[in-house]
Design goal:
Pfam families: HxlR. The chain is α+β, with helices and mostly antiparallel strands. The longest helix has 14 residues. Helices cover about 35% and strands about 10% of the residues.
Length: about 140
């Protein structure tokens, strides 16, 4: 689902507050049928929810809002942007900056232990589920 073309870009825009079909389409230049398919998939997997709205004198339309599961993808999108900015930088500078709300202190994505301390990448081990006994 996340690997489908356009999905990560839709999620990026949603994380920046975009909710309406027309806004996604305008931002991304995506064909309406493809956008409909991707939004339906995100709704099906409960990453987004569809909410009806109606402007006076217009037909009912839908907004697409991130669910809690969708909001958790902010770390993934942020990590991908952080990696791109570090390894494939644009001449104009970073694509996005993340800051602490209220203080504007810069943020970055990393591994954090249960005590809230960041763990350097060379100290991170991955244990696969099939390596656990009794599994």
């Amino acid at each position: 689902m996340l690997g489908e073309r356009w999905t990560l870009l839709i999620l990026r825009d949603a994380l920046e507050g975009m909710t309406r079909f027309g806004s996604f389409q305008e931002s991304l230049g995506i064909a309406p049928d493809v956008l409909t398919d991707r939004l339906n998939t995100l709704v099906e997997y409960e990453v987004m929810r569809r909410e009806a709205y109606q402007e006076p004198g217009r037909r009912t339309r839908y907004e697409y809002e991130l669910t809690e599961a969708g909001k958790q993808l902010h770390v993934i999108i942020g990590g991908l942007q952080q990696w791109g900015d570090a390894n494939l930088p644009w001449p104009e500078g970073p694509t996005a900056l993340r800051q602490t709300r209220g203080t504007s202190k810069p943020l970055h994505v990393g591994f954090v232990d249960e005590d809230g301390r960041e763990v350097p990448l060379d100290e991170v081990d991955t244990v696969h589920f099939n390596d656990y006994p009794n599994r």
